[in-house]
Amino acid sequence: MDLEDAGVIVKYLIRDRDAKFPALFDQILVDAGIQVVLTGVRILPVGARRRLLRTRVLDGVITSTSTLLELRR
């Protein structure tokens, strides 16, 4: 089973610059229509990314809720 069989459309793959990914790996993805995006040299640890994402999502929910409440007035 591949991604197309599962009904998933992948446009981008974000990966680090680790040498364990050979150029052939990227070429296979490009041939499948997937753009490979390399991360910066330093990325946040998983826990910090999770907290950042949670904060941004919650900020969005709070902002959306506040906007809806203001519209109902």
Which SSEs are present, and which pair or pack?
Blueprint: E1 12-15, H1 23-31, E2 35-38, H2 46-72
Parallel strand pairs: 1-2
Describe the structure.
By secondary structure, the chain is mainly alpha-helical. It has 2 domains: 42 residues; 30 residues. Strands 1-2 form a two-stranded parallel sheet.
In short:
This protein is mainly α and 73 residues long. It has helices spanning 23-31, 46-72; strands at residues 12-15, 35-38.
Radius of gyration over all CA atoms, rounded: 19 Å
SSE arrangement, N to C: EHEH
Structural class, from secondary structure content?
A: mainly alpha
Strand order of the largest sheet: 1-2
Query: Please, how many helices?
Result: 2
Query: How many structural domains does the protein architecture include?
Result: 2
**Sheet with most strands:** 2 strands, parallel
Morphology call: elongated
What distinguishing features does this structure have?
mainly alpha, two-stranded parallel sheet, 2 domains, 73 residues, 11% strand, 2 helices
